[in-house]
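Researcher: Quick test of sequence recovery. Tokens follow.
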């Protein structure tokens, strides 16, 4: 299964209607959720910085793809702002879920988990991708040792 399949399963099974994805890249997970969850309000947060990834390096192209496609979805809300600034747009316990898949440095993952967990309502989920990367794994193991690990790379915990 892909990351978006694990996430979709959690969101759909729990009837979630409001969430955020931190780190969109070219929007594959973002639009997959919007395609499959009716009435979903989904905030996409990204600043599209150039990175060392081996594919889809053209962040300006990725940004244009996301903005063009987002117009097709009434529930798509794009915030082109850094994660720690974007958090100011949300009240505590205001989202059903937050999916973290942005900057994968230990500091950034730690900052995202600590900040965004407060935005997820009780009974909601905080989750992310790339648990198979040491920088992500070490932080998830430290801050969320009870997290469920799916497929060796997708992690999630109920708040």
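Model:
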């Amino acid at each position: 299964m892909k990351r978006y399949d694990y996430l979709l399963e959690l969101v759909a099974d729990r009837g979630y209607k409001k969430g955020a994805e931190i780190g969109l890249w070219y929007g594959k997970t973002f639009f997959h959720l919007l395609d499959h969850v009716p009435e979903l309000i989904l905030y996409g947060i990204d600043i599209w910085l150039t990175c060392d990834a081996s594919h889809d390096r053209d962040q300006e192209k990725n940004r244009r793809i996301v903005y063009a496609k987002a117009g097709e979805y009434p529930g798509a809300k794009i915030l082109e702002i850094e994660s720690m600034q974007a958090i100011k747009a949300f009240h505590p316990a205001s989202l059903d879920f937050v999916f973290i898949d942005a900057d994968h440095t230990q500091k950034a993952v730690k900052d995202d988990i600590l900040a965004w967990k407060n935005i997820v309502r009780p009974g909601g989920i905080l989750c992310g991708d790339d648990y198979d990367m040491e920088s992500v794994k070490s932080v998830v193991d430290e801050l969320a040792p009870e997290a469920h690990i799916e497929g060796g790379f997708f992690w999630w915990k109920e708040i």
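Strands lie at 18-22, 41-45, 76-79, 95-100, 120-128, 148-150, 154-158.
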